[in-house]
Amino acid sequence: MRRALALLAFLGGAATAVNVNLRPQGDVLTRAVQAALGSISTKDFPITLDTKTGPTLTLGGVGVSSAPFNPDVIARVVQVGSERRIEFNPQGPVPLQEAVKLELTKELKLGAWTPEAAAVGFGGADLNRDGKIDLSDLALLMANYGQFAKPSTPLVGDLNGDGKVNDIDVRLFSAQYKP
């Protein structure tokens, strides 16, 4: 373990940018999503909206799901064929900006809507998925150091997705690990 910590200190590194795939419909919802993502984005860990893929976000129900909302509901998730939609209640119990943050916290599986939680959730170094990046994650990475992925089987610790666990993955981990 000392060798792994020394390697972390020696290699250093920087985190990469993250694109969040969502398709908000309309200017009001697009601005709300961009503002929400901007509130968890940092200079060191920029988070941007990519509208090419991902679930569709609407204000109110659309088409077959245009049934009225329960007044206490912030949003609902609807599956229509192959399309997944998150529909926000236009008369919901909280303002739209807050509703977007609350629902995207669940959708993106973040522990909270903070820059720190986003860095952990999007960074990939939380290998055991316990909501923190610690020595148990480093142990998982080092257990697979030098390994190569088998076809269609992800490799724990392959943070950059190149099919092997090596110094690049250790650098990515070290950029996210904060003792």
UniProtKB/TrEMBL annotation:
InterPro entries, alphabetized: Dockerin_1_rpt, Dockerin_dom_sf, EF_Hand_1_Ca_BS
Keywords carried by this UniProt record: Signal
Organism: Deinococcus xinjiangensis
Protein name, UniProt field: Dockerin domain-containing protein
Gene3D superfamilies: Dockerin domain (1.10.1330.10)
Keyword Lyase: no
Signal peptide region: 1-17
Pfam families, per the entry: Dockerin_1 (PF00404)
Record's keyword annotation contains Transmembrane helix: no
SUPFAM superfamilies noted in UniProt: Type I dockerin domain
